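LOG
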Amino acid sequence: MTRRKNGHDYEISDKLWNKIKPLLPLPKPKKKPGRPRKDDRKIMSGIFYVLLTGCQWKLLPRFYGAPSTVHDRFQEWRKSSLFEKMWKAGLLDYDKNKGLEWEWQAIDGAMTKAPLGGAGTGANPTDRGKKGTKRSLLTDGKGIPLSVTVDGANRHDKKLVKGTLDAIIFQRPSLDEGIQNICMDKGYDFPDIRELVKEYGYIAHIRRRGEENIRKKEIPGYRARRWVVERTHSWLNRFRRLLIRWEKKIENYYAMLQLACACITFRAAGLFG
């Protein structure tokens, strides 16, 4: 992704577009002749602009085309699972070039405001009961997103673990290929969660509630593990469309999350500059 000097226009790089273009669904045949179809690359740049800046669809610069056209194409591509396919393609490239770190995975939840409500929202316990949404994220050992699920902000993190593990979009290696650990904070310290992750083939690393916070940085050879998922949540919040959930329809919110995860993965693979 490149940004023009005027500060308004974002364009997809040739390298990234060559990865996205083969994933595009075939356009629907027109019932009657009319205006030619707006360029897909320009439309995708407009969708990236909305994701990155958080602007309303109707305020999208005309550089990308009519806002209604860009939004309609977003809906068309969302229904074809394009954004999930982009995320998978990014993971495939990253795994091929750098290698996903399956040995140490991490899971954590994060809450954001959702003033318009809709499915997957609920009373936010940290924001005076206002509408909020919670996303549960699983990453590899370097913070590359592998899975994301959404529920109401009042939903406990432990209730999202199974859905998050079931939603991994890239095939996990078999356990014969190596041990897989999963790092979780004290909010997941429950016997049923420890048993659940064991059933999925993980070795759980969960700090117990009430356990003293030992300064492990002073221990020789110690390497922090769980912070990578917190950093990835921070990366997601840099996409201003995700900082506050403005999508009332949960499927549109998922599409934006998937696109953001694709961006993070493509960037890590060296394709999103």
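LOG (cont.) second protein
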Amino acid sequence: MLAKDIKTGTIVVQNGAPCLIETINVQSPSARGGATIYKFRARNLVTKNKVDITLKGTEGLEDADFKKREVNLMYTEPGQVHFMDTETFEQYSIAADDVADEMQYVSEGLQGILALIYNDECVGINLPATVELKIAQCDPGVKGNSATGRTKPVTLETGAQVQAPEYLAEGEVIKVDTRTHEFLGRA
């Protein structure tokens, strides 16, 4: 796969290990004959370390032999999170520390969770781009605050905290971007 074809969320092989591309920075040449440079920030899915990859536009990386399976959250226990494949009913366990960032947006019954299966072992999960969660706790809104663009911290039903407009109240359901951790709007 050429560097120009690699997108955020793509899984590639770097130094013999699968890596999930998290960010991409493209630098165009300023001189004639210069090559466009692609800088990727990736996460090694086995060791969980960040990896920086720099490629010219004509270079590429190999696609990882990965399976993505749709799963549902079964239960969590100290140190482990357990998921079940929605088609085969196969169960996958993963260390809670490895998916701590993702779990702050996983609520009961969330659809669209994908397990990343490498060598028949679950090494991570992918969440839908947006999730709808209820506001569990926030400061009360003051009448007239909707005219300004000010925000306040709100705690969601899963325990995650995001910045949201001041006019929102407890119990309202909002959409949150799971990649940027930003408020998108009311659900």
